[in-house]
Design a protein that fits this description.
Layout: H1 21-28, H2 34-51, E1 57-60, E2 76-81, E3 93-97, E4 110-116, H3 125-138, E5 139-150, H4 152-155, H5 171-180, E6 184-189, H6 205-212, H7 215-221, E7 224-230
Parallel strand pairs: 1-2, 1-4, 2-3, 4-5
Antiparallel strand pairs: 5-7, 6-7
Length: about 240
């Protein structure tokens, strides 16, 4: 699967003397083959798009290098990140550079949101709730949100190996956050992807495609949760 890690380099706003995220992620992913990594994300993006109900308008609130948002087969693709990490606009992505806490998002616009490896970077649990509520307001009634991240229950020994991990989250805590933010909880997979693909399997589109469609493998290797919620209400009519 991935050459090193499924985590996309994303950032939240640091204090003036805080972490230099550009240097941090350059170091963390210094030996990652980006082309191989993208092959894995191409498969993950298609799978997540299906799980979201094949939405036409998708938001990636922590887009990073754009591995997901450039690959997801949606007509309208938006990304947000604190720092620019490439020319995602050339791939047809509408990028907003800024802190997700502060940027303006269109109200009731998106019918799909994918939040990957981000909530654990926030300063506290209240911030998790704030972000989810903001995303809910930007979603259409009936739209779905998929949240993926390291599950502390299964990777406690490695959880804080990442210098920017601050908030402890498990699938149960995220499930509660999703409901508290006004979503209906549709599905919870305590184990989905490995915490890191470092040394697990080679980066391969075929292997990734097989893995995501074989839940028995999740129970063997998975240390990241996948929680899917739905904003209440009927989807807007096409007419």
């Amino acid at each position: 699967m991935a050459a090193r890690s499924t985590e996309t380099p994303t950032a939240t706003a640091p204090p003036a003397s805080g972490i230099n995220y550009e240097r941090l992620y350059a170091y963390r992913f210094r030996d990652v083959d980006q082309a191989s990594r993208q092959k894995v994300w191409n498969e993950l993006a298609r799978y997540i798009h299906e799980r979201l109900g094949e939405p036409r308008s998708v938001l990636d609130p922590a887009a990073g290098r754009g591995e997901f948002i450039t690959a997801v087969p949606a007509d309208d693709r938006w990304g947000v990140d604190l720092i620019r990490q490439g020319d995602l606009e050339s791939a047809g992505v509408k990028m907003i550079i800024g802190d997700i806490m502060d940027v303006e998002l269109p109200r009731e616009h998106f019918d799909g949101v994918f939040l990957s490896n981000f909530l654990e970077h926030l300063p506290d649990q209240d911030s998790v709730g704030t972000v989810l509520a903001k995303l809910r307001d930007a979603m259409q009634p009936g739209g779905r949100i998929a949240i993926m991240g390291p599950n502390f229950r299964y990777c406690a020994k490695n959880y804080f190996d990442c210098a920017d991990h601050t908030v402890i989250l498990s699938h149960i805590g995220v499930e509660e956050h999703v409901y508290a933010a006004g979503f209906e909880v549709e599905s919870v997979a305590p184990r989905f992807l490995p915490f890191s693909f470092r040394g697990v399997l080679p980066p391969s589109a075929a292997l990734t495609r097989t893995y995501v469609r074989t839940p028995v493998l999740w129970r063997l290797l998975g240390k990241q949760f996948l929680v899917i919620g739905r904003k209440p209400g009927a989807p807007a009519s096409d007419s």
